[in-house]
Design goal:
The chain is mainly alpha-helical and about 160 residues long. It is about 60% helix and about 0% strand. It is elongated and about 80 Å long. Bound molecules: zinc ion. The site of zinc ion (ZN) has 8 residues, from α6.
C-alpha cells in the first residue's frame, strides 16, 4: 500500500478520535468510527483482513502480539508496578487470550509479579522484610501468615 494512503488513514484515526461526543449514542458512534478508521489504517499498512479485529479495528496479527508482549515485558522490568500498570497489563492479556488464545498458549502473556495470595504487586512488597524473597510468588506478609499457621498447626499436632 502507498505511504500517502497510510498517512490519510492515520489522519482519519486522529480526526475521529478528536471528534466531540457527549451522549452515550455519540460515544458509541465515535467508537464505531474509530474501529473503522483503525481497520482502514491496518489495511493501508498491509495487514491482512483476517488479522484485523472487526470490533476494534486493531491489528491482531502474530507480529502485533509479539510486539505488544515485548513492550509489556520491557515495561514491567523497568518500572515500578502500580495497580494501574498491573490492571492494564492484565486487561491487555485478557483481550489477547480472547482474540488469539493459540498464541498466548504458545508464548505466554507476561504476568506482573504479584502475590498469589493477596495480589499485592511485587514492587510493593517490603524489601526490608527478612521474609521478602524476590522471584517468589508470595509477599513477605502472606509468607509470615503461612509460617504462623504452620506453627499453630504443629503445636496442635504436638499436644
Ligand atoms: Zn500477599
Amino acid at each position: 500500500m502507498s505511504r500517502a494512503m497510510a498517512t490519510r488513514a492515520w489522519l482519519r484515526v486522529v480526526d475521529v478520535a478528536n471528534q466531540p461526543a457527549e451522549t452515550r449514542v455519540e460515544v458509541a458512534d465515535r467508537e464505531t468510527s474509530k474501529a473503522d478508521a483503525r481497520a482502514a489504517l491496518c489495511l493501508a499498512n498491509g495487514v491482512p483482513p483476517d488479522d484485523i479485529d472487526p470490533a476494534t479495528g486493531l491489528n491482531v496479527s502474530r507480529d502485533a502480539y509479539q510486539q505488544a508482549r515485548g513492550s509489556w515485558v520491557r515495561f514491567l522490568s523497568g518500572h515500578r508496578l502500580s495497580d494501574y500498570v498491573v490492571r492494564d497489563c492484565r486487561e491487555a492479556g485478557r483481550r489477547w487470550r480472547e482474540l488469539r488464545p493459540e498464541w498466548v498458549a504458545e508464548l505466554p502473556w507476561p504476568r506482573p509479579a504479584a502475590c498469589d495470595t493477596c495480589d499485592t504487586p511485587g514492587a510493593e512488597w517490603d524489601a526490608t522484610d527478612p521474609l521478602h524473597l524476590p522471584g517468589t510468588s508470595q509477599c513477605p506478609w502472606c509468607r509470615r501468615v503461612d509460617i504462623e499457621d504452620d506453627k499453630r498447626a504443629k503445636r496442635r499436632d504436638d499436644v
